[in-house]
Amino acid sequence: MDLITPIIATLLAVVPAIFWMGFYYWEDYRDPEPMSVLFRTFLAGCVVAIPFLVLKLFLVQIPSLSIICTGASSVLLFAALEEMAKLTASIFIVMRHRLEFNQLIDGVVYAVTAAIGFAFVENLFYFIQFLNSGQDGLLQVFAFRSFGTMLAHTLFSGLAGLIWAYAYFSKQISPFNQKHLLAFELKDFLNHEMLTLHILRKNVLKAKPSERGGHEKKMLVLEGILAAILLHSIFNVTTSLQLFGQSLTFVIVPGLMGGLFYISYLFTKKLNVQILKVV
Q1: Angstrom distance (rounded) from CA 232 to CA 211
Q2: Facing residues of 239 across strands?
Q3: What residue ranges in 215-271 does DSSP mark as E strands?
Q4: Residue 187 belongs to some domain of the structure
Q5: DSSP letter string over 168-186?
Q6: CA 101: distance to chain centroid?
Q7: 170-182: per-residue pLDDT in tens?
Q8: Greater pLDDT, 98 or 212
Q9: Amino acid 134: pLDDT
Q10: Domain around 122
Q11: 217: which residues sit within 8 A by CB, 6+ positions away?
Q12: Which of 48-52, 165-169, 188-192 is the most confident on average?
């Protein structure tokens, strides 16, 4: 059995994971989260990534089902499942370390850490397949998977984690204390205002938790996930399409850089003020 390929693939996947973990940890230097808790969050992200990779490999092997892995259905389905899985992984860890989760910016920290774990496993399998294929262009693939795909994962999850944190720190019952986190009725969804814009205007820009509660808190969490899914889908489509034989990947570069600068900006705001009463 060839052990060189998995070793090289592991090194290629580990380097960007360490880089982005270090980057976000440094951004949170004012009141960093315990490394042990972050490592558990990273592992949780790794664990939830495995079923997706197994599912994709299974679907590709069956001709009648392989169409699910291509086209618009793949873009929307896997983007939705991945974003929900990454946020769930971060919530799973937070619920076991609530005393450490005492700032709004912590929603970003834990969400991006789970996303890095998810992207690490995804990159590991991708690099193994690429090395076994014998194709050229490893450096370009490494750069894109490390500073494109992995960064994108952290940005999408960071957005969902931030909006979830606003709901968590609201004055009323936290969303994940509800029996059904995303339960809602269609008529309520259609009649309600889109809370994301309200939260961005009234709370995110003023760096304070939302005072909304109850059903609307669940709607807020749902909209955060939907926003992450939308951005993830746009990323997948843009990196998959070609125009006049040219890849459109370059189109998303300004967006990724803008998202990175915005998250860095959030760490400098009052989002890192401790909120002592969590529940």
Answers
A1: 29
A2: none
A3: 242-243, 246-247
A4: yes
A5: HTSSS--GGGSSSTT---H
A6: 18
A7: 754 344 443 333 3
A8: 98
A9: 81
A10: 4-272
A11: 167, 170, 172, 173, 174, 175, 178, 210
A12: 48-52
Residue 83 has pLDDT above 90, yes or no: yes
The mean per-residue pLDDT over the stretch 186-213 comes to 48
Lowest-pLDDT choice from 21-25, 34-38, 222-226: 222-226
How many folded domains does the chain comprise?
1
Residue 278 located in a structural domain: no
In a domain, 255, yes or no: yes
What is the phi/psi pair of residue 247, to 5°? -70, 145
Six-digit token string for 208: 């304070």
Name the burial class of residue 135, with classes exposed (0-12), middle (13-18) and buried (19+) by CB atoms within 10 angstroms of its CB: exposed
Q: Six-digit token pair at 177?
A: 């204390």
Per-residue tokens: 153: 């994962």
CB 272 within 8 A of CB 108: no
The one-letter amino acid at 266: L
CA distances from 109 to 1, 116, 119, 166 (A): 39, 11, 15, 14
Q: Can you tell me which residue has the tokens 């929307």? A: 76
In a domain? residue 277: no
